[in-house]
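Write out the bound-state structure for magnesium ion.
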Amino acid sequence: MIEPRGKTQPVAADCVPAHGVILDLDGTLADTLEDLAAAVNFAVGSAGFGPFEASQVRPMVGDGLAVLIARAAPSASDEDRAEMTRRFRAYYGNHFLDRTRLYPGWPDALDALTQRRVPLAVLSNKPDDFTRAIVDRLMSRWSLAAVLGQRPDLPLKPDPAGALELCSRLGLRPSEVLLVGDSPNDIETAKRAGMRGVGVTWGFRSEKELRDAGAETLIHAPGELLLRLPKRHRVETAAPQ
Ligand SMILES: [Mg+2]
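---
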């Protein structure tokens, strides 16, 4: 069957027997910004930093909790940051789903990916316990092959270690995996891991930042991801509006 999708169609991908998808969490699957901003303000406010608007917290997110605290309280001592991290964890543990939701379009896209038996995994720089808790609460109706957040024994993205570990768990070669994310970190991770990076434009970073990071594939709605998979995994209902 010939599909008239022109140059947006990745010809090489059609030769790949199976594609797995690794998804970033914050800014990609879920809009976590408001709850993160509240936790940051709780963590650093008593030391005289902030308060920050959510829009100010947005560029601080994506490189792990330690970096988030360091960006919110740049002149704080290591000891103060340790206390702020403790406060963040205490607050966020009770408020991580106050306003956090999957972005529109994901339920249908995840249904379609599941229907097509595309192996799915989540890879986040968010602490592993919070990553798992959010995925458990927001994505329980879909079967994920693996979920991996920040762990002490694993370097953060853009180091490819986590992505490659997930790839191994999915039973796929890196070249068979799409790594989908909203930040330059995700694009860089994909490059270093030998995967195809897919940038999403609805997240915490701008389309320009993604392009500057070398993103060759950008999607503007979750359903467009289906068009980046081999033909056998595509579904007619997943076409972008
Ligand atoms: Mg992200």
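---
The first helix runs from residue 33 to 45.
The pocket of magnesium ion is lined by residues 24, 26-28, 62, 181-183, 203-204 (CB under 6 Å).
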